[in-house]
């Protein structure tokens, strides 16, 4: 390609002859990897005009660079980066002087993130990837998605895709969520009760920012989704952890000073327990009596294939106390970064102001793409296809676990995309995961879901089946059993 | 379309007969606008199985709904929402009980936003829209953008578009920014010194969050970009406002206790002053001597068509003190929500952790679309085409202003997409804007750029030329002069 003349800027602080400076601009570009073999340099006339220097200076610099093998001259076609030019150096030259900034003081490292679920980047190269939360290309209707994208990329939608919408969401997407998604959870909502977010995690973060301060108290389930713990830590509120049992959260354990409770009633993360109706009612009563709010993370609700779906907590809420969070990460794919929050209008107003400050609005493109995917019914088909495939995988997994004498930890009648497991006493899930990795099996050790130092973290692991083919599950499970047996010896 | 059976959920708290409840589910759907005339209901058998009730209950409910004109029966084809069904009501029924939540206490309205630039939503219906910051469909290469999107939507890029990338950016986009954009600003960077953001505003917000606390002091230019003031207010740091002159920020006015300075050296927002080289050097020296950091907002740098582009402040920074912010909002379009931050690796690491918590990563789609637009050279062509068009508009505007005796406030030798104007003494820019609006002319009153109550806010306005055609500029300008003359009488 041609190197744009605007790539060249003389640094006014530089010393040395102009010819030298021009040469340095070229060699810096080549060594920095910005100019590549075959790239064409601007003509000497053009570069001279641009830099406000004489043409002969540029010609002399180019000639010198040809002599040094950085450039080649192809007669009237001009100058090109030579195939013999030195290879780019990996690191840039260090700054001219030693930096005088004390970063540890200046930054303070205030954004702490705890242990996350470890997963090799090249997880696709493993034969038995029992991992969680990545899209499955085999199940995604790529063709229809592309068709919806093409429709949205037409001239008619130019404004929706490209305009600065300030604080507003795409009204098409909001309408589709209200019409097609929320009713399945028993939820009615008006447009001013819905906010589009950059995924469910962004909705959780927004809720925490809007509802919590250093003087307020949040209650969360324990064990729990590790990112939620980080979000609450960053908000600097007081936090209470409520240990769940086989049926999820126990409403009687919520301390009366709670301001906001975060919960996953459809199926608890990570144990998959579904909160029974009597507990849901008790929970809402507690919220009213003790005047706290509830953030309901309804992740993966589309995947409740083992039971008739229970209505969302939000659908039982007559008081506006529940802030409901949904996501397209599972029904479409996580790289889309789209989710939504449904709450009382004052909460949505405040959340929208915050979002307006942080990033204005979610990109117009992805909102309209998703709106069309919903409108045309592809979303429903996608959800059904995924739930069907996961049900089949789950059946194979349950059967394989039973055959190998491995028992899941706790009940799980919901479905979802993972099973929560306990290791035998004395066997560390980290050790197990490390050994299995060497045999091309990936499992997710449980420590990330617990407080650092909690022994139960070493005693649990998660088996995801959203990225593993049914046919790989029996052998993968057998390998887990084999390594477990070795570790117990 | 067919209404999915999953749309129906019996609310376990409801009383009344099952038949009544089924009828309510249907009427709620119709009155709430979710079920529309012509939509097909699930078969009675299917709905009965789904709800776990007898089929005859559903049939009786449907029959009753036909009698009430909500549904029509088309024999064996089933039941459909009737064309005679009542129209949806705009607001949903109020919640069953009065809400007991005291929102003013619970939320506290902590996310304050100040006055923003007012602009009617239907600005395209105005004949003389001197507005700022919206995309211009006439200049955008829609066809090539679509082509890049199609390429990215192919199977080869499935992972880049759909996978959960956690904290990572699209490496293709980062590489293109480093190779094609930063060198034009005289900036060299390694990938670990670049963070992709959801637009420049998101980069400013991130910088403020990472660098400021309640115990730190920010300095900002005055007047200034109103969103920056809101961002600093939300960070709760101390803030000093530094009044700019005709050449922008005066380095000698920066108080020694400053921790972070926010500046727009290429052309100050909103006055368009370009910071001269001696002040840039003085600024960097002050930063080193007094140990503060500089956030350089290089918005619209692509539009410096009136002068040879000055290298960015960041290009003179040997000490890692400058955090550089760029955006695709002007070179592509604002609805894309893409920008970038270039800074020392420790700053980028911290900013990335924060972003990971807030939203994980920018959507894969828009990152890869933009990467291809850069790779294929469309970006360069786009920038050149836009700068050419804006230069032509600016020439017409300057000439029209002169002919009508209107003088811009301060110097502006940069270019950009707007001119900063002063009203004659005693004439309020708000009044002027209101009168002009009635004559199909939109201007942007200056109050948003000043502190509330500062009289200078009433004395300034901005004329944007990014959305107005050259041919409309002379008449628009004449109308402004005409209304100004009336107001002075």
From TrEMBL, chains A, B:
GO molecular function: DNA binding; DNA-binding transcription factor activity; pyridoxal phosphate binding
UniProt KW keywords: DNA-binding, Pyridoxal phosphate, Transcription, Transcription regulation
Domain of life: Bacteria
Occurrences of domain HTH gntR-type (ranges): 16-84
Pfam families associated with the record: Aminotran_1_2 (PF00155), GntR (PF00392)
PROSITE patterns for this protein: HTH_GNTR (PS50949)
Alphabetized InterPro entries for the sequence: Aminotransferase_I/II_large, HTH_trans_reg/aminotransferase, PyrdxlP-dep_Trfase, PyrdxlP-dep_Trfase_major, Tscrpt_reg_HTH_GntR, WH-like_DNA-bd_sf, WH_DNA-bd_sf
UniProt KW Nucleus keyword: no
SUPFAM superfamilies found in the cross-reference section: PLP-dependent transferases, Winged helix' DNA-binding domain
Family: In the C-terminal section; belongs to the class-I pyridoxal-phosphate-dependent aminotransferase family.
Protein name as annotated: HTH-type transcriptional regulatory protein GabR
Organism (species): Thalassobacter stenotrophicus
Gene: gabR
């Amino acid at each position: 390609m041609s190197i744009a003349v605007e790539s060249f800027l003389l640094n006014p602080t530089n010393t040395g002859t102009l010819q030298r400076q021009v040469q340095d601009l070229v060699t810096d570009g080549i060594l920095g990897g910005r100019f590549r073999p075959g790239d064409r340099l601007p003509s000497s006339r053009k570069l001279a005009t641009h830099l406000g220097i004489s043409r002969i200076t540029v010609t002399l610099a180019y000639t010198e660079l040809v002599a040094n093998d950085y450039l080649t001259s192809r007669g009237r076609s001009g100058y090109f980066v030579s195939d013999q030019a030195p290879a780019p150096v990996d690191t840039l030259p260090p700054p001219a002087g030693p930096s005088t900034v004390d970063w540890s003081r200046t930054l303070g490292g205030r954004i702490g993130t705890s242990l996350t679920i470890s997963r090799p980047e090249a997880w696709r190269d493993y034969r038995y990837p029992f991992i969680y939360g990545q899209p499955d290309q085999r199940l995604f209707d790529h063709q229809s998605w592309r068709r919806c994208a093409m429709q949205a990329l037409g001239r008619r939608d130019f404004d929706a895709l490209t305009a600065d919408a300030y604080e507003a969401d795409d009204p098409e997407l909001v309408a589709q969520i209200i019409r097609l998604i929320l009713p399945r959870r028993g939820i009615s909502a008006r447009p001013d009760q819905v906010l589009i977010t950059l995924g469910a995690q962004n909705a959780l973060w927004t809720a925490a920012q809007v509802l919590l301060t250093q003087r307020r108290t949040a209650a969360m389930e324990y064990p729990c989704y590790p990112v939620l713990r980080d979000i609450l830590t960053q908000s600097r509120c007081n936090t209470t952890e409520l240990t769940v049992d086989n049926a999820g959260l126990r409403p009687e354990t919520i301390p009366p000073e709670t301001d906001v409770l975060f919960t996953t009633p459809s199926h608890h993360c990570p144990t998959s327990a579904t909160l029974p109706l009597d507990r849901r009612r008790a929970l809402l009563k507690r919220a009213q009596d003790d005047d706290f709010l509830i953030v309901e993370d309804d992740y993966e609700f589309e995947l409740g294939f083992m039971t008739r779906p229970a209505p969302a907590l939000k659908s039982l809420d007559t008081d506006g106390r529940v802030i409901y969070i949904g996501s397209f990460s599972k029904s479409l794919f996580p790289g889309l970064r789209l989710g939504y929050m449904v709450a009382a209008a004052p909460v949505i107003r405040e959340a929208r102001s915050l979002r307006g400050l942080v990033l204005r609005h979610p990109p117009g493109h992805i909102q309209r793409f998703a709106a069309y995917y919903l409108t045309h019914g592809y979303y429903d088909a996608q959800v059904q296809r995924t739930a069907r495939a996961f049900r089949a995988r789950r059946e194979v997994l349950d059967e394989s676990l039973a055959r190998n004498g491995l028992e899941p930890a706790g009940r799980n009648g919901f479905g979802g995309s993972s099973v929560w497991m306990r290791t035998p006493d004395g066997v560390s899930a980290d050790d197990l995961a490390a050994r299995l990795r060497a045999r091309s099996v990936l499992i997710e050790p449980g420590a990330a879901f617990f407080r650092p130092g909690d022994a139960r973290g070493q005693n649990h692991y998660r088996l995801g089946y959203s990225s593993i083919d049914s046919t790989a599950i029996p052998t993968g499970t057998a390998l887990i059993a084999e390594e477990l047996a070795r570790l117990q010896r």
